[in-house]
Design brief:
Elements lengths: L2 H22 L5 H19 L1 H11 L4 H49 L5 H4 L5 H6 L1
Helix pairs in contact: 1-2, 3-4
Length: 134
């Protein structure tokens, strides 16, 4: 076994441990935890299976096998960033809808109670989009 294989496996094990610890403290959700654990398993697997990396590079038509790994890693990172950006867009929609529902409920409560709204209740200082845009 090569020294670089041991370094790859050790990195994958430490990364998997960090992912599990963050999941335990609920800093990541289950979907992300599973995806990152799969990344750690892929790194460990490719570190141990060097002939597989060569075969993968040949299949992709790439002469230098580490370049094939670099390409696959970049592709995986782009996919992950795309998924996270989709999730951010969905959460922005949910936040806007929630702010609108709170405003409607506050207006309905004001009408029901007959109490006039104060100036701070009429115009919030910032909208949710302004808060996240900064």
């Amino acid at each position: 076994m090569f020294r670089s294989s041991l370094v790859g496996v050790a990195f994958a094990a430490l990364f998997a441990l960090a992912v599990l610890l963050s999941a335990r403290t609920r800093r990541t959700n289950e979907r992300h935890t599973f995806a990152w654990l799969m990344v750690a398993a892929a790194v460990a697997g490719l570190s141990l299976w060097r002939d597989g990396v060569d075969a993968l590079a040949r299949a992709m038509g790439i002469y230098y096998p580490p370049s094939a790994l670099f390409f696959l890693a970049c592709t995986a990172l782009m996919w992950l960033v795309y998924r996270l950006s989709l999730q951010v867009a969905e959460q922005r929609k949910q936040l806007t809808r929630l702010a609108q529902e709170v405003a409607i409920l506050a207006a309905a409560e004001q009408v029901r109670s007959g109490k006039p709204r104060t100036e701070s209740e009429r115009a919030p200082a910032t909208s949710p989009q302004d808060t996240y845009a900064a």
